């Protein structure tokens, strides 16, 4: 990379001056970017590096505590599973989720500040537009997560509710270090949509670099997700359709050869997870969030496991053998001491903890369940059923799948079935279950934990919003907190 070197206390500290005191942003180097390639490196440094959504699954009905396991859970996991008002350990003021997402925004803004004033040479135009498009996508992604963690779910009743701070340039960070404000939720979503529109135009027709970076299809998948959460079903259908037309849905029947060779219990364990079997990786559009050696739902010493309620949704007594059960099943003999200790479930998407693998951020099957839900909510039952069948025929063993029929569902039961399939397809991916629970009415939940103690999350509980971190309150004392 071509960097212009300044003194150690200048360089990117000119960019980052004071920003570590606002929004928990932390500089990663002290070099001043100059070329478009330099700014590409800045952008790549802004892609999230922590598992900023896996712990939110602990707050959902997708997880239970297997109390037969001897080892105790990490203290910070307790805080999430029991819906503690604060998810930070005693004496800790910085929230790594808040900090990571605002760091990503800062890096994206740094790129956009420069590129909005820059005219690329003709031989640099493609790289310029690719990097700029990714920067818009990364900023939209980050604001979407911030809004869905720290603000109310989007609805006509919450448009004026407190959203999150929304710096749109690196300069904003310097100017508002001690005077940060939470923009209205409607304004935050308007910006997300605008950024995705920009990203879509800039990345259209560009060659995909790899699945760790946004490309045109990943942007469309994210647009479909955002529009679904906004209740804009026609636009959700349009964006999801663009993904479905251009990207293949994996057929899990391709795992059968390995299953026949290894048998159920040993087909996906050790060094091979479900993501490694068949052609499943082909439908992944975007990996994110750090290597999966922090899979807190797999190892025998970890007590938090996929719930049996979740497992039952892909282990129905009728409709054929569902290959998605291999994502969640131990296939252990529950009549043995070992089986009782291990329990019936684990999260086996990524195999054992030691295997490096990035978390799934966006994939093709999400586009199918988004479009199916949008069709169903618009009372287009036949189209919704067609999408469900297109998904399930690639999840159920060949020769055993029985197509669903519109006549067997009312409008309400069809939406319920689609949401069940969405829950299975997106479990432990992108923090979607927690965000879905929020948008679907913030239902009451309960968890059983140590010594049989029952913890409850009430309907519409204030704890459905994560609290603004103490570090932000210290920097901006007048910033409104969540209830």
From TrEMBL:
Pfam families: SusD-like_3, SusD_RagB. Residues 361-482 form the RagB/SusD domain. One of its GO terms (cellular component) is cell outer membrane. Residues 23-228 form the SusD-like N-terminal domain. The keyword Membrane applies. It comes from the Bacteria. It is found in: Cell outer membrane. InterPro entries: SusD-like_N, SusD_RagB_dom, TPR-like_helical_dom_sf. The keyword Lyase does not apply. Coiled coil: none annotated. Keywords: Cell outer membrane, Membrane, Signal. Its main location: membrane. Belongs to the SusD family. This is RagB/SusD family nutrient uptake outer membrane protein. It comes from Chitinophaga oryzae.
């Amino acid at each position: 990379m071509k960097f212009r070197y300044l003194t150690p206390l200048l360089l990117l500290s000119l960019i980052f001056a004071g920003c570590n005191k606002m929004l928990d942003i932390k500089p990663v180097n002290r070099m001043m970017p100059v070329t478009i390639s330099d700014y590409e490196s800045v952008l790549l440094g802004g892609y999230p590096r922590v598992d900023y959504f896996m712990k939110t699954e602990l707050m959902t009905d997708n997880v239970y505590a297997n109390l037969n396991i001897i080892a105790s859970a990490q203290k910070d996991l307790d805080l999430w599973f029991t819906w503690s008002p604060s998810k930070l350990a005693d004496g800790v003021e910085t929230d790594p989720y808040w900090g990571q997402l605002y760091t990503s925004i800062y890096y994206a803004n740094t790129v956009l500040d420069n590129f909005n004033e820059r005219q690329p040479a003709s031989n640099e135009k493609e790289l310029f537009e690719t990097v700029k498009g990714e920067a818009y996508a990364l900023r939209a992604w980050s604001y979407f997560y911030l809004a869905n963690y720290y603000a109310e779910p989007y609805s006509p009743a919450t448009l004026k509710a407190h959203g999150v701070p929304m710096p749109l340039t690196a300069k904003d960070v310097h100017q508002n270090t001690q005077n940060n404000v939470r923009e209205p939720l409607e304004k935050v979503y308007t910006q997300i949509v605008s950024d995705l529109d920009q990203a879509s135009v800039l990345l259209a027709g560009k060659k995909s670099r790899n699945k760790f970076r946004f490309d045109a299809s990943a942007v469309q998948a994210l647009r479909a997700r955002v529009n679904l959460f906004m209740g804009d079903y026609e636009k959700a259908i349009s964006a999801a359709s663009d993904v479905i037309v251009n990207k293949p849905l994996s057929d899990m029947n391709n795992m059968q050869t390995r299953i026949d060779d290894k048998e159920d219990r040993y087909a996906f364990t050790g060094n091979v997870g479900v993501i490694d079997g068949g052609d499943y990786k082909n439908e992944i559009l975007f990996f994110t969030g750090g290597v999966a050696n922090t899979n807190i739902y797999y190892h025998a010493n970890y007590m938090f496991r996929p719930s049996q309620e979740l497992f039952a949704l892909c282990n129905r007594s009728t409709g054929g053998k569902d290959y998605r059960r291999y994502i969640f099943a131990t296939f252990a003999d529950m009549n043995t001491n070992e089986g009782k200790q291990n329990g019936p479930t684990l999260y086996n998407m990524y195999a054992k903890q030691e295997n490096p693998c990035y978390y799934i951020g966006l994939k093709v099957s999400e586009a199918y369940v988004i479009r199916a839900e949008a069709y169903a909510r618009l009372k287009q039952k036949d189209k919704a059923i067609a999408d469900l069948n297109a998904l399930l025929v690639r999840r159920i063993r060949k020769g055993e799948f029985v197509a669903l029929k519109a006549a067997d569902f009312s409008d309400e039961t069809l939406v319920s079935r689609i949401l069940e399939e969405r829950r299975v397809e997106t479990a432990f991916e992108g923090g979607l279950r927690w965000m879905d629970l929020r948008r679907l009415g913030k239902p009451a939940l309960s968890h059983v934990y140590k010594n049989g103690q029952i913890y409850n999350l009430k309907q519409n509980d204030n704890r459905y919003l994560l609290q603004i971190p103490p570090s932000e309150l210290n920097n901006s004392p007048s910033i409104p907190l969540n209830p």
